[in-house]
Amino acid sequence: DQQVKQNSPSLSVQEGRISILNCDYTNSMFDYFLWYKKYPAEGPTFLISISSIKDKNEDGRFTVFLNKSAKHLSLHIVPSQPGDSAVYFCAAADSGNTPLVFGKGTRLSVIA
Amino acid sequence: DTEVTQTPKHLVMGMTNKKSLKCEQHMGHRAMYWYKQKAKKPPELMFVYSYEKLSINESVPSRFSPECPNSSLLNLHLHALQPEDSALYLCASSQDFRGETQYFGPGTRLLVL
Fold this sequence. Notes:
The structure holds two protein chains of two kinds.
Chain A: E1 4-5, E2 10-14, E3 19-25, E4 32-38, E5 45-51, E6 56-59, E7 62-67, E8 72-77, E9 86-93, E10 101-102, E11 106-111
Parallel strand pairs in A: 2-11
Antiparallel strand pairs in A: 1-3, 3-8, 4-5, 4-9, 6-7, 7-8, 9-10, 9-11
Chain B: E1 4-7, E2 10-13, E3 18-25, E4 31-37, E5 44-50, E6 53-57, E7 64-70, E8 73-79, E9 87-94, E10 103-104, E11 108-112
């Protein structure tokens, strides 16, 4: 049973526009959420996180939004740059108990 | 400094070989992890060490044997692997294993012939 779902395997966006990556989760005990970016043959790089006491967290061009009632989070990248092209993994945890659970990833392509 | 280092970067081994993967972090983190990642798949958790003790073993075959010699080091000993074990092996660390942000190493790309 997939507890963290990224339903879009890929996304293409024009340079300078907004990229929106989505993630849904099923476990209502999850209270800590992260986004990782991954280039081929490299380890995932931590991008941004949010805890369930917040509904938004911003870091430069990256903003994560959390909608707890819908069990949904999204990552907004604006403006998108070609160097943002990578696979983005959403991850979640029940911070009392479990290590991270990863979604299957969304491949973002930013076209110049 | 959020660096996790892994050696070797690449490893090719036969099914009868014994080899080890190494991971090191100097962030004072007390949890360390091994993940396996196949192409186009998310990282799959294999083992978690917390305070140098094995906390989680996700039903990994015994041909993979983890070891945590001290709080900064994590090894993965490999013996009698199968070709389907070929993958990117990732090490990660975090302050504590309960949901803290994990920092990943660059991975070891393993090919089993």
